[in-house]
Write a structure and sequence with these properties.
single chain; Growth Hormone, Chain: A; 401 residues; mainly alpha; 2 domains
């Protein structure tokens, strides 16, 4: 948190926004990994239905992201985030009262609306509107803290469930949205939109319009979308099932949970390195390095016995690669396409990405159950290789431009 103090009067607000990300992602996206067995036992929801809630959340975000992006460019993020926090709280309360598949999945539609309005790309747009040329560094520093979401909320959810049950746990999460998250969002300054025609004359700064020539923007857009959609299919699916995957491979539940929680610190360490050194390299080359290690690790793990050491090593290194990729996914569009229309561009990228991300939880639930641990990892490697190939093509294209 001390890192944020160097950014003028926005330091406390950035700390608060980091906290809202931990709460927002931890109480929604990561909670089914811990809730899955209780939901199966108490209301008869199989893992496909449970993780299907995440699919609905992401599809909902994909459908409304372009419209939200255009609105954020015009009006700023404050009102959208405040409304999103209230809607997330409502969705979590509905989830706490679920009695079966219909009410369970309906609650995730509501959560998805709030998620798209307050989390997802909205926080990065807020940073871009506040911080200008320092956006990439601030996003990297912000993600140092938000990488703790799973490591904080997996054990927190387990403790609350043991003490109060899963329904009360979700009501606590709903209350957090109103008591903690909403006041922080309300502190975001009002945004004053300045149309391009009203800006000062002269050459725009490099950050205004990005590095991609207009003739290559369409090709660059689709290569970025393919690279992050393919890698995201794995990064949004496999981590949710690491606990189950390790248990299927012979580890105990306690061992699997402990090992899975290493993902947060490993992700943060990678993001710290990126925040410190990343600005010395083009964002696309940073992304390429992260996309190289994922397939290699997924191919290597099935070749060794599934021990605590092997599983822990995989989680640490794989999560570090995902940490680099996640920062690149947030910062590369800004570097390539510029701050002008940044929210609208993120909204367009969200459509193909979220459709792919939406399939990830359910796809990996089926793969882990039907294919087993080793084949799931091999398929993961093949999918990530597609993302690496797309990013490699982008790097080559930019080098020739």
């Amino acid at each position: 948190m001390a890192f944020f103090s160097r950014f003028g009067g926005h330091g406390p607000l950035l700390c608060g926004l980091a906290l809202t990300r931990i709460i927002g992602w931890g109480s929604t996206f990561y909670s089914p990994s811990v809730l899955v067995r209780a939901l199966d036992r108490e209301i008869g929801l199989n893992p496909e239905i449970v993780f299907g809630g995440i699919t609905i959340l992401l599809i909902t975000g994909a459908l409304i992201a372009p419209a939200i992006g255009r609105q954020l460019d015009r009006e700023g993020t404050r009102r959208s985030m405040c409304m999103g926090a209230v809607i997330c709280a409502l969705g979590l309360a509905v989830l706490a009262m679920a009695q079966g598949p219909v009410s369970y999945l309906a609650s995730w539609f509501v959560i998805g609306l709030g998620h798209a309005m307050s989390l997802a790309n909205v926080g990065n747009v807020t940073i871009a509107q506040l911080m200008g040329e320092r956006t990439r560094r601030v996003i990297g520093l912000m993600m140092l803290v938000t990488g703790l979401a799973s490591s904080v909320f997996w054990p927190l959810t387990a403790v609350l469930m043991d003490a109060f049950g899963w329904r009360a746990t979700l009501l606590v999460f709903a209350a957090m949205q109103i008591v903690i998250v909403l006041p922080i969002y309300a502190a975001v300054p009002r945004f004053r939109h300045v149309p391009p025609s009203a800006k000062a004359t002269g050459a725009p700064s490099p950050g205004e319009n990005g590095r991609v020539p207009s003739s290559l923007r369409k090709a660059a857009f689709w290569l970025v979308a393919l690279a992050f959609s393919a890698s995201g299919l794995v990064s949004w699916g496999l981590p949710l099932h690491l606990i189950t995957l390790f248990q299927e491979a012979g580890l105990t539940q306690a061992e699997a949970v402990w090992i899975a929680t290493l993902s947060g610190p490993a992700t943060i360490a990678a993001r710290a390195i990126d925040a410190t050194l990343g600005e010395r390299l083009p964002a696309e080359k940073v992304a390429l390095s992260g996309l190289l290690f994922g397939p290699a690790l997924c191919l290597a793990l099935p070749l060794v016995p599934m021990t605590i050491g092997a599983a822990a090593g995989f989680v640490v290194l794989f999560s570090a690669a995902l940490g680099v990729i996640s920062v690149a996914r947030a910062t590369l569009p800004l570097a390539l396409f510029g701050r002008n229309g940044f929210a609208a561009m993120l909204g367009k990228l969200t459509v193909p990405q979220n459709i792919t991300f939406a399939a990830a939880p359910l796809l990996f639930a089926v793969m882990v159950e039907r294919l087993g641990a080793d084949m799931t990892l091999i398929v993961s490697a093949a999918i990530q290789a597609i993302g690496f190939a797309a990013m490699f093509a982008l790097v080559r294209m930019l080098a020739r431009a």
